[in-house]
UniProtKB/TrEMBL annotation:
It is found in: Cytoplasm, Cytoskeleton, Phragmoplast. The keyword Lipid metabolism does not apply. One of its GO terms (cellular component) is microtubule. This is DYNAMIN-like 1B. Residues 31-299 form the Dynamin-type G domain. Residues 517-609 form the GED domain. It holds the Pfam family Dynamin_M.
């Protein structure tokens, strides 16, 4: 069972070392889940004397006004033999055997956090005391409740102290040790009042009555100690502390404990309660109760720790890795992020992710529809055919077939294919740009570095622009090639006038009759449709080769070349992470370290059973 209190001691120390003070923050807190005993009382309640009686040593600062201005986590460790000593967590390599020096260090460490003012702080001081005269126990000494601010203190100090005390004792895992002086009306007790507010049933409140020996003659505290005047779930414990005269004379604490026992045993009013009175009994009761509470909380604590570790790891993964400090590390980080983006981009094109299928839509729907809308037959009206053939013949009419007229008519139709070809190039370009934006948003590392995201996005778009220009040049060349050289075999297979019963010696006027021109238009339309079908197949090949394939192969090549020339400062500008994210990651890493340590400690205790 002693291992359980030691376990909580270790976890509390780890919490403080790693910044978990149980105060409100955006981070999960382990501190609030740990069972603890908080000592609450007014300034003149004898709170410090109770703690010193339990420890058996003078070690707490004394004086007028608010002396305890930071929570003091007091961890008592029972040792079988050897000289008693104390250790502060902030001075781990130093052992204090002089408890007057402990008192001074508490004051000095308080001033280091709050300055030499009379303000308070919620950051705890951790003090461990090792002695054969103590029980294994952990107590948190909180600032004494007060009703009036003194000179040098904020006007809000009264409320500030109450808020701090409340923040500790309102937690369901906190055991309240409420210190009240017997020589004052219990109804006015600051400790009982605030304990009743947060624990109305008294299920986790221990009442301690001090200054019993200073009550007015003829009065006693029997009704309170027997639970008749104010009932709590646990029996009240009365203590008799050293008087101020004893403190001034430095009366030995062990002797004071003996006198306390004798007082209760020999007092007619309290002798029947003597077996459960005194600071020694109080220490044992609290130690046993704390062990019981810790044991009952272990399963829930394990579950909470395991769940929180998963959540912290998830958020850290989402925030990404911290930035390297050296130029090589920064360059490596930048390259890895760019490769992740490039891989996402390729997965869209390859069908692993959605988006690449839209490119096929351009080839299968947009391009054919655009070609169909050209309506070549409208270009080949009788008037147009007659006009173009006549213009092509010039001053010397054609003899057999209007070859120049054919060429001009075909070129006139094929040139109009350039528009749909360019539109197909632009359509694929727009889809590739959209995929770049998707890949940017789907690369979590780029969300971490806004400047790098912008630079990578700009570099990718610039590459796509270069590829579009090359694709447009190559695709339009396909159209121009068809215009520049006609397929002769097509025309050789066409029936000639003589074969159709015509007379090749017809007059020039007859050769321009409507039937003849209509046949010319039909031949041209057949050729143009054949060429259009060829281009419908070859244009997608050109676009894929010049844009899609090239984007997959070398989207960021130029950016990588420029990246290798950058110095450390320039790389740092690319990796300009939000300072809030940097701080959040550092805080999460500390908190994860705390929870992993807690998991290890709890598992060690669980396996040792």
């Amino acid at each position: 069972m002693e291992n359980l209190i030691s376990l909580v001691n270790k976890l509390q120390r780890a919490c403080t070392a790693l910044g978990d003070h149980g105060d409100e923050s955006a981070l999960p807190t382990l501190w609030d889940s740990l069972p603890a005993i908080a000592v609450v009382g007014g300034q003149s309640s004898g709170k410090s004397s109770v703690l010193e009686s339990i420890v058996g040593k003078d070690f707490l600062p004394r004086g007028a006004g608010i002396v305890t201005r930071r929570p003091l986590v007091l961890q008592l460790h029972r040792i079988n033999e050897g000289k008693e000593y104390a250790e502060f967590m902030h001075l781990q390599k130093r052992r204090f055997t002089d408890f007057a020096a402990v008192r001074q260090e508490i004051s000095d460490e308080t001033d280091r956090e709050t300055g030499r003012t009379k303000q308070i702080s919620s950051v705890p001081i951790h003090l461990s005391i090792y002695s054969p005269n103590v029980v294994n126990l952990t107590l948190i000494d909180l600032p004494g409740l007060t009703k009036v601010a003194i000179d040098g203190q904020s006007e809000t100090i009264v409320q500030d102290i109450e808020n701090m005390v409340r923040s500790f004792i309102e937690k369901p895992n906190c055991i309240i040790l409420a210190i009240s002086p017997a020589n004052q009306d219990l109804a006015t007790s600051d400790a009982i009042k605030i304990a009743r507010e947060v624990d109305p049933k008294g299920d986790r409140t221990f009442g301690v009555l001090t200054k019993i020996d200073l009550m007015d003659q003829g009065t006693n505290a029997v009704d309170i100690l027997e639970g008749k005047a104010y009932k709590l779930q646990y029996p009240w414990v009365g203590v008799v502390n050293r008087s101020q005269a004893d403190i001034n004379k430095s009366v030995d604490m062990i002797a004071a404990r003996r006198r306390e026992r004798e007082y209760f045993q020999n007092s007619p009013e309290y002798s029947h309660l003597a077996h459960r009175m005194g600071s020694e009994h109080l220490g044992k009761v609290l130690s046993k109760h704390l062990e019981t509470v810790i044991k009952s909380r272990i399963p829930g604590l394990q579950s909470l720790i395991n769940k929180t570790i998963i959540e912290l790891e998830g958020e850290l993964y989402h925030l990404g890795k911290p930035i390297a400090t050296d130029a090589g590390g920064k360059l490596y980080t930048t390259m890895e992020i760019c490769r992740a983006f490039d891989q996402n981009f390729k997965e869209h094109l390859d069908g692993v992710r959605a988006g690449g299928e839209k490119i096929y839509g351009v080839f299968d729907n947009q391009l054919p529809a655009a070609l169909k809308r050209l309506h070549f037959d409208k270009h080949l009206s009788i008037e147009n055919i007659r006009k173009l053939i006549t213009e092509a013949d010039g001053y010397q009419p054609h003899l057999i077939a209007p070859e120049q007229g054919y060429r001009r008519l075909i070129e006139y139709c094929l040139v109009s294919i350039r528009g749909p070809a360019e539109a197909a190039v632009d359509g694929v370009h727009a889809i590739l740009k959209g995929i770049v934006q998707k890949a940017l948003s789907e690369t979590p590392e780029l969300k971490q570095y806004p400047t790098l995201r912008v630079e990578v996005g700009n570099a990718a778009i610039e590459s796509l622009e270069r590829m579009r220009e090359e694709s447009k040049r190559a695709t339009l060349q396909l159209v121009d090639m068809e215009c520049g050289y006609l397929t002769v075999e097509f025309f050789r297979k066409l029936p000639q006038d003589g074969e159709k019963g015509g007379n090749p010696t017809h007059s020039l006027f007859d050769r321009y009759n409507e039937a003849y021109l209509r046949r010319v238009g039909s031949n041209v339309l057949q050729y143009v449709n054949m060429t259009c079908a060829n281009l419908r197949n070859s244009i997608p090949k050109s676009i894929v080769y010049c844009q899609v394939r090239e984007a997959k192969r070398s989207l960021l090549d130029y950016f990588f070349t420029e990246l290798g020339k950058k110095e450390s400062k320039q790389l740092s500008k690319l990796l300009d992470e939000d300072p809030a994210v940097v701080q959040r990651r550092a805080n999460l890493a500390k908190r994860l370290e705390l929870y992993r340590s807690a998991q290890h400690e709890i598992d060690a205790v669980a396996w040792s059973k």
